[in-house]
Amino acid sequence: MVGTRAALRYAKATLNLAKEKGFAKEVNDDMILIQSTIEENHDLEVMLKSPVIKAKAKKAVLTEIFEKKVNGITMGLLNLLIENKRPALLILVAKEYIIIYDFLKGIEVAQITSAVPLTKELETEILKKIEESIGKEISMNNIIDPSIIGGFILRIGDKQYDSSVSSRLKDLLSQFEDNQYVPKI
């Protein structure tokens, strides 16, 4: 992906500064806020990537949205990205920061894909069960993918547990393909 190396450098530098000042957790919360805000607002993402919109306008928008909600270190990062003409990297920097911070704190990231959004109660229960089985603190991302029909797919690190309906249907179809007594579907 274009810009990931630069985003990683910005994220590392921001994390180092935040650790030095004692605000690493607060900046991580800011990065989560920035990531979710940009992902939920397509127009904001388009505006940040647009070469037509002037840097001054982008800075005004970002300041209006985040100034009272984020730490000074995070605002410094936003201003630096604007000055260096790289505001499109903001979401990538936020994602990289979160990954590095989680690694630093020993937090595993669990990615759960479901056909519908999980309720808070169900999410809490799943998180508790995963933490008990792994023995580590877990951070969870819920991805909605209606194509799995039902069930869920859980990925933690390089391990994946697929309990989706679509996966079970594919397994069933493969069993019928080898059966000479059942006509091809």
Automatic annotation (TrEMBL):
Pfam families: OSCP. It is a peripheral membrane protein. Its main location: membrane. Belongs to the ATPase delta chain family. The lineage of its organism: Bacteria, Pseudomonadati, Bacteroidota, Flavobacteriia, Flavobacteriales. PANTHER family: ATP SYNTHASE DELTA CHAIN (PTHR11910). Keywords: ATP synthesis, Cell membrane, CF(1), Hydrogen ion transport, Ion transport, Membrane, Transport. This is ATP synthase subunit delta. It comes from Lutimonas vermicola. It is found in: Cell membrane; Membrane. It comes from the Bacteria. F(1)F(0) ATP synthase produces ATP from ADP in the presence of a proton or sodium gradient. F-type ATPases consist of two structural domains, F(1) containing the extramembraneous catalytic core and F(0) containing the membrane proton channel, linked together by a central stalk and a peripheral stalk. During catalysis, ATP synthesis in the catalytic domain of F(1) is coupled via a rotary mechanism of the central stalk subunits to proton translocation. This protein is part of the stalk that links CF(0) to CF(1). It either transmits conformational changes from CF(0) to CF(1) or is implicated in proton conduction. PROSITE patterns: ATPASE_DELTA.
